[in-house]
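so my prof wants the structure for this chain in the tokens format not the other one, which i didnt know existed until like an hour ago. anyway here's the sequence
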Amino acid sequence: MKRNSAALCYLSGPSIPSLRSRVPFVSKAIIFLLLCGVGVFFLDREEERGTFASANQTYIDWLIGNSREKIQEPSVTFLRIDEGALEAYESGTAFGPLEFAQLLHRLNEYKPKVAAIEPVLEWKEKEELLLNALRDTSLQCENLLLGSVLELDSTGAPLSDAVLSLFPAVAKVKGDPSRIPEFTGARDLPELQLRITSNLGFTAIDLGDAVTASEDSLAVPLLARHGGKVIPAFVLRAVMLENGIAPEDVEVELGASIRLGDALTIPVDARGYLTVFAGLRERLPTYSASILIWKPDEVVGEDGSGQGMKPEERSALESRVVLIGYDNEPAKRIPLKKGALISRAELFALAIATVQSGRYIRLLPDPVQYGVWVALVLAGLFILRFRRKRALGLGFLLLLLYFIAGMLLFQSARTWMPVVIPLGLLACLLVAALVLPSQAAAKGKDDPAPE
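here's what i got, hopefully its the right format
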């Protein structure tokens, strides 16, 4: 009987203190996990709404600022034909030859390097007088680039040599060209008076490969092929014209890069697609085309008085690529992550900005981001087992290590992840370490109170 009582005391006695010492940490861990869950829920919701776009852009700027490679500011301006511009020019739902002639006439006074018009300048009802006025204005442009739409014609009708000659060929192509988007015909071309005096670039291939979305980026084709002939797209032609690069100086290595002489090297995939970083929207100079209703000498005063063009608007038009395109609500059809929609014209402006600045940046895939979140939570659970002061110190050390790891990842792979949720998880850790009692205190040991 005594032996049984002793055995019972042996089994039950030590377990009670052990259980009591574990309960506080379990409670602390549960509270910490609840904090993390609530924080991630609300922060992720606001991330989806774009609340933290400026914070993410600040983080990207910090990564770029600490990068070993020099990254330039983009030199392209997106001139939007939006609802305000349509109203200012009294043009209804779309610009006609007269409105484009007025717009180009005013734009020429600022001498942009390239004036790139994304919508196809073609109209069903043709007025020769207005078309001739638009042609005369277009001749005054230093470099005028006009958009066109090609097609993959299932009828097999041959494309005339006259039309094909409008698109200069890139002769130096390495790799398998069969993966480059194919076209067999031209669906929409600018008016004859314009196409023979301007540079052309295709903006889409009807029934062919389209723009593809991936995370916070979009893939844009820079090349197309007709038989053995490979031609540059609208975006690539704009960059070529800005840098004075002839087609024969372009070298394509599919799956690697497109080299524009000694000026630029553009990374592309095996199809000739460029990945465009959508985060550049925060840095892209964007103005309504209605600013061109003011004459160059009508400038707002330094005190903000008077009417006219602001100095920053004027500088955004001078010696740059100025891309003009529709950006009203019906034109916004390309989906981005977070539910945002953008126009094809804005996408091309972002693509040009990506090439000019060298911001070939990719977002860390979602599964990897989730893994980072879980790792931070697990690290927090481990840190919370220490005394309050040590836990706070380890928390700040974890914060420092996170930024160092983010910088190394960006420098090695041009990859990043949104910073707000990880910072929120680290904030939950610091709050839990500061407010909740430590495990050492639960065991009866002294733990200094927060000062």
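also thought this was worth mentioning. The longest strand covers residues 144-151.
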